[in-house]
Amino acid sequence: FVIYNKVYFCPNLLPHNRPGHDWPRSPAGMLAAGHRGGSGGFQRVKRGWVWNQFFVLEEYMGSDPQYVGKLHTDLDKGDSAVKYTLSGEGAGTIFTIDQTTGDIHALRSLDREEKPYYTLRAQAVDMDTNRPLEPESEFVIKVQDINDNEPKFLEGPYTASVPEMSPVGTYVTKVTATDADDPTYGNSARVVYSILHGQPYFSVDPKTGIIRTALPNMDREVKELYQVLIQAKDMGGQLGGLAGTTTINITLSDVNDNPPRFSKSIFHLRVPESSAVGSAVGRIKAHDLDIGKNAEVDYNIIPGDERGTFDITTNEHNQEGIIILRRPLDYETRKAYTFKVEASNAHLDSRFHSFGPFKDTATVKINILDVDEPPVFSKPSYTMNIHEDTQLGTTIGAVTAQDLDAGSSPVRYVFRNPPSDLDSFFDIDPVTGTISISELLDRESIAQHNISVVATKVNNPVLTSRVSVTVHILDVNEFPPELAIPYETYVCESARVGQVIQVISAKDEDLPMSGQKFSFRSPQEGMNSKNFTIKDFGNNTAGVVTLRSGFRRRTQEIYHLPVFIEDSGLPVKNSTSTLTIRVCACNSEGALLTCNAEAIFLPVGLSTGALIAILVCIVILLVIVVLYVGVRRQKKKETLMTSKEDIRDNVIHYDDEGGGEEDTHAFDMGTLRNPKAIKENLFRRDVKPEAGSVPRPAATSQDSADIQNFITERLQEHDGDTSAPPYDSLATYAYEGEGSVAESLSSIESLNGETEEDYDYLNEWGPRFKTLAGIFGDRSESQTDVTSTASTTTTAENKH
């Protein structure tokens, strides 16, 4: 046991007979200890705490606490004056100490794999005062291991692969088991591997756990998957050791050790003769027991009597051989084909060449099936030529089709359905296939007709064939030649004899334009023409040649030259055109200066300056006449002021509050005056008149006396009214009179009138109402406008 400050070795206190409690010796090599003051065989060693280790057995299953060891100090006299305390890992919960005796016990079962050791601190203190008698010291309690954990495969189950046909001893994989027991104590953690299931195919190394093949030539095609059970046992595999197992799934990977094989030696196929070129007409397959790329098969046709009619390709998805048609089939020509097909592996493995050739062959027999086919035309297309003047009903050609089937059905011909406009020019015989003209042809309108003919079998109208027919319309010389363009020809006054003044050419609507030949001449050649002639250059052009000189515009300005043109077609067509030749002035180099009509006036002896003067006089006279007419019209339309619009404008601009009697500059009252109505010795209304100087209306007639009296009274009232408006404003009165033919002149009542009245009687009221009569005499204005204008005009009249 361990004592504080002094250590004694007491053999009788050590648990010699308890497993796991071998007392470790101190570093000083302490042999024995006894009571204080003892002698004889005891050796006293004086020192501090001695580092020692206690051991406790793991997984203790007893009912009493497990005894661990004892602490004692030489200060303990056995009188219970010393108290032992314990602190550190597990103190009080896992380990406990008797305060009086110093015995240490474990309260519960311990697991080394959970915690292999515990570090604690012990101290001796005074029982009464708790005063430490010696410094605290540390010691370790180790948990002694027992074999309580089996080996475990932490990475299992395992998956591995090895090529098929591998030799014995080929490495497959490695397994590893771990044991949680203490590898430094006994054989609890020493593991040995063995195979429980999987022999005789595989073996395992008992120490390393490496899996290897144990049987040669394992064939994947026979068995692909193997399940191996591996055991790991501790205690070196001895009896009583604990064991763990794991499973290894081993797959044999494929190698190319099998050739492709056809399931039968002869394949029979039936193919309709109507099969399209490029279509698949059959499938064959060679089976390969391998998988993946080792099962890829290449197919080839061994050259024979198929004559390139068929080809074969490989379907990459299912490795089938697809037979492709390369040429059209015809049952009537050939009814069967026979050829051989070879299947071989695409990827070979040299290790297995000794197994034999990795290919196989099979025979393919193809029988052609007869199909009811549409008629076949003798040509893929037809071309026909016909002149445009061919008469109606003329046969221009024929199409021919026949049924090549064994039944050889009759054939009927029609134009395509529905027929086009181009087909309407022709008819076709439904039995013979002859094509004739049904309408007149015109090459200049349509030079080529493209029609389509359909051939139908009588016994099966559904089967039809179509062929195109091209009809070229040949040209017939039916149009005469004419000048290519309308020429503007002139001859200089200084032209010489034999000079070419114009080169002309011709055109013809007939074909061909490039191959036509035109000839030119003058029809006046036999009539002693003295001015011009036509010279044919022989290249479809001609020149206009002068026969004399001295052309003068004053003598003759324009000449007409007939031109005779003839083509080379059959029948020959010709025409006569006329060239207009003007005489013009040219410079010394022959360049055109003028071709105007000046020469017409030259014979009367007038110069250019005289002509210009005459024209200027004529223009001046025309201007004078226009101005005179305008002034006359303006006088007829002129009224009191320039226009009615002016009157309205002045009234609108006058719509402001007056400034009183002193405001004589706010408005220009002169704009309201009619200059024609101004007379001398009349008073101005824009200034205050002198008393007694206001003019009084003179009596015009006995009949207007009542009006004169009414106006006189109103003027007197206005002159005496101190609250009257300024003198530049308007005072309006309404007076109907007695028996007036004009009835009321009130502007208010005039608005209610729906019919226009005749205001001619206003002309009889004297010169003061002349302007008013002129305004109301205008029938184009509405009644409302007339009333407004009359009021404004009256204002102007009063101002005057």
From TrEMBL:
Gene3D superfamilies: Cadherins, TCF3-CBD (Catenin binding domain). It is a single-pass type I membrane protein. Residues 776-800 are annotated as: Disordered. Residues 787-800 have a biased composition (Low complexity). Pfam families: CADH_Y-type_LIR, Cadherin. It comes from the Eukaryota. The chain crosses the membrane at residues 610-631. GO terms for molecular function: beta-catenin binding; cadherin binding; calcium ion binding. Residues 73-153, 154-262, 263-377, 378-483, 483-601 form the Cadherin domain. One of its GO terms (cellular component) is catenin complex. CDD domains: Cadherin_repeat. GO terms for biological process: adherens junction organization; calcium-dependent cell-cell adhesion via plasma membrane cell adhesion molecules; cell migration; cell morphogenesis; cell-cell adhesion mediated by cadherin; cell-cell junction assembly; homophilic cell adhesion via plasma membrane adhesion molecules; morphogenesis of an epithelium. Keywords: Calcium, Cell adhesion, Cell junction, Cell membrane, Glycoprotein, Membrane, Metal-binding, Repeat, Signal, Transmembrane, Transmembrane helix. It is found in: Cell junction, Adherens junction; Cell membrane. Cadherins are calcium-dependent cell adhesion proteins. This is Cadherin-12. It comes from Astyanax mexicanus (Blind cave fish). The lineage of its organism: Eukaryota, Metazoa, Chordata, Craniata, Vertebrata.
